[in-house]
Amino acid sequence: MLKVAGLESAYGVSQVLFGIELEVNAGEVVTVLGRNGMGKTTTINSIMGIVTPRAGSVHFDGKEIAGARPFKIAQAGLGLVPEGRQIFPNLSVRENLVATAANRQGDSTPWTLERVYEMFPALRNRATSMGNLLSGGEQQMLAIGRALMTNPKLLILDEATEGLAPLVRDEIWECLQRIKDDGLSILVVDKNIADLIKLADRHYVIEKGKVVWSGTSDELKGDEKLQERYLGV
Length: 233
Description:
Layout: E1 2-11, E2 14-24, E3 29-33, H1 40-48, E4 55-60, E5 63-64, H2 70-76, E6 78-81, H3 93-99, H4 113-119, H5 121-125, H6 136-148, E7 154-158, H7 166-181, E8 185-189, H8 193-199, E9 202-207, E10 210-216, H9 217-221, H10 224-230
Parallel strand pairs: 3-8, 3-9, 6-7, 7-8
Antiparallel strand pairs: 1-2, 1-4, 4-5, 9-10
Helix pairs in contact: 3-6
């Protein structure tokens, strides 16, 4: 579904990515792991067109999307839950959700307002509340719901549970498992390795803008030296 090859990106004269290679197949959950500042968010932003790659290719559903405008990439079927959530603070929960609603892929069982409320009951209870009045957990639920309302083929989450209380994190992981069970492909960045190992099929570890390891959850779980070298604080 998604194939990234030789991806290079920079901010001005400072190059951040040096030939990133990764793939996400239909129905898979794949992670991008690494310490802070290693290029994870730049990788996501380069895939989404927020950062224009200097070199390399990004194929989605067989079409080249590298360098396309972000809204065109979103319309192609990629849904982003950005780092920091970035919900609309002056819109209500309901307005945040319906603002992005679309079913461009013609899904027979699309994500609707009611379906998002079933996934996140807390949002139903806060439907008329402004975005800036929500807790961090509620904002993250809203950001995920907003992305789902675009009915994407691939859901991308950058720092899926950053800064959330443990109980809220557990709820987010449970919801992502349900989304996976529904067959939606997911690409996720997060630091909670134990939870990612339970959820994901495969992992890519990034160090200084390069993929230094890739493998399955079983392989990652069984390699404590790898975790300590590239993922430990």
